[in-house]
Amino acid sequence: MNRNNLLLYLITDREAAGGRNLCECVKAALDGGVTMVQLREKNMEYEELKKEAFEIKKLCHEYKVPFIINDNVRLALETDADGVHLGQSDMGIEEARRILGKNKIIGATAKTVEQAKAAMEQGADYLGSGAVFGSSTKKDAVTMSFDMLKNICRSVAIPVVAIGGINLSNVSKLAKTGIKGVAVISGILTETDICGTSEKFRRILKNI
Questions:
Q1: Domain count of the chain?
Q2: 140 marked as binding residue
Q3: Distance of alpha carbon 125 from alpha carbon 147, whole angstroms
Q4: Which CATH number does the domain housing residue 46 bear?
Q5: Is 42 marked within a binding site?
Q6: Parent domain of 133
Q7: CA dist 158 to 65, 71, 152, 170, Å?
Q8: Is 109 annotated as a binding residue?
Q9: Which listed residue, of 40, 54, 95, 131, carries a Cα 20 to 30 Å from 175's Cα?
Q10: Is beta strand 83-86 parallel, antiparallel or unpaired with respect to 105-109?
Q11: 176 labelled ligand-binding
């Protein structure tokens, strides 16, 4: 995995998109410079989600951007996605690696240094850590301190992406935390100008 792909990581959410066509929203974000896309849709039937996955994967690959599936290793396998992102309560990293193979990207959520070290030892390629500014898409998300984020970044040799409530007005606050990128949901998908917002994120992220 190229670490540069983690710079601006879009995570999908149909509700945040406000009824707009999700593929069109993803395309606008890709036009604006998003470097990785994760399909995370909690309220879709499997076959519908699978169809969406194939469509968004095709779009991502036209832009040479990795396409990741949230949680669902079966879906990642059946759609030949570029990888999967696993939460603490999902399938274990080592089992996912056995199923998906050595060439797929496996990301893992880590909220503590212990979780971060364990995920790295089990073979994760990158970590997602937060919620750094709370979250509008996960109501039960616990805000992570910047000190904890810094400690996680220092504790592992794999790249860390910050997630949780990140938008154009607060992303600069993450400078010097050690992250390799940010994962954004509402901060891009709720905006009228998704392409322009993504471009602004890219400009800011080059300097942090």
A1: 1
A2: no
A3: 22
A4: 3.20.20.70
A5: yes
A6: 3-206
A7: 19, 20, 10, 24
A8: yes
A9: 40
A10: parallel
A11: no
